[in-house]
Write a structure and sequence with these properties.
alpha/beta; Rossmann fold; eight-stranded mixed beta sheet; binds S-adenosylmethionine
């Protein structure tokens, strides 16, 4: 049999092409990780020139994820579907959740084949964590997938995690419809742990230039204001206290060395579907 030509493989799967800046690897580099290549670092450095406190912002985003998963596990939820889970790093969702609820189950989902392969190797280490290679734009495929249904019980509350994901969907991808499908599918008592890059307080030129950096990456970015982000949810969702706010301010832990507020922010919160 003939081996598939490399170019054909790369055309089918941009995640394998190390010349294409990859949003999971850009994020890994900004967090101080080592799973990244030259094109990823070049794109990340260009972003940091535009947004000098971006590294703080992604760390704040990751710290929010840890606090919010911990808080939701404390509330009694022990099933998580983490969509756009990213490359494995410290304090992955199952580690945080199982610290509070040793019986917690986590299904990791990402559309990037390299992320899914890393996750299979590093995260899905036992019978209570799973990995699905899928795109959030086909949310019904994810929610109905036999592997998801085998791990997650849709008769009991579920926490869906969409952290630093939805800004990779354009208006044409209809993120509001995806959130609405979750509203319909999730059992009572479920929550959505959510963050989104936010343009509030940024110059239009800066936002446009950052958008251009992402334009040639594996997932172009759509910048949104806090008002536009809230509009994705509408009236069918309520927010746990303190609402959808800059992630650093969401139930902060006492900080031994207070840091000045960053201009570049992700907003985040825990949304609850309303009847
Ligand atoms: N959620 C993690 C966090 O906040 O630490 C990782 C965030 S990383 C910035 C975004 C992740 O979303 C990447 O791993 C990327 O591959 C994934 N992603 C982007 N678009 C996606 C899509 N349409 N469907 C599923 N995953 C997607």
């Amino acid at each position: 049999t003939q081996r598939p030509h490399l170019a054909a493989l790369l055309a089918d799967d941009p995640a394998l092409d190390t010349n294409v800046p990859n949003v999971a690897r850009i994020y890994d580099y900004l967090l101080g990780g080592k799973d990244n290549w030259h094109a990823d670092r070049e794109a990340a450095d260009a972003l940091v020139r535009l947004l000098p406190d971006l590294r703080d912002a992604v760390r704040d985003n990751r710290a929010f994820l840890r606090r919010a998963v911990g808080a939701v596990a404390e509330q009694g939820i022990n099933q998580f579907i983490d969509i756009g889970s990213g490359l494995p790093t410290r304090d992955n969702v199952h580690q945080v959740a199982q610290h509070v609820r040793p019986d917690a189950r986590v299904m990791y989902v990402d559309h990037d084949s390299v992320v899914a392969a890393h996750a299979r190797a590093l995260l899905a280490s036992d019978a209570v964590t799973g990995v699905l290679h899928a795109d959030v734009r086909d949310i019904a495929f994810i929610l109905d997938h036999p592997d998801v249904r085998a791990l997650i019980d849709f008769e009991r509350p579920i926490a869906v995690v969409m952290v630093a994901l939805m800004h990779f969907l354009s208006e044409a991808d209809d993120p509001a419809a995806i959130i609405d499908t979750l509203w319909q599918a999730l059992p009572p008592g479920s929550v959505l742990i959510f963050t989104h890059a936010c343009t509030d307080g940024l110059e239009n030129d800066t936002v446009s230039a950052a958008t251009r950096v992402y334009a040639n990456s594996t997932a172009p970015i759509t910048a949104r204001s806090s008002r536009e982000i809230l509009a994705l949810f509408g009236e069918r969702w309520a927010w746990q206290e303190p609402g959808l706010i800059p992630v650093r301010d969401w139930r902060p832990e006492p900080d031994p060395i207070p840091v000045p507020p960053s201009k570049t922010s992700f907003v985040g919160g825990v949304a609850i579907p309303q009847c």
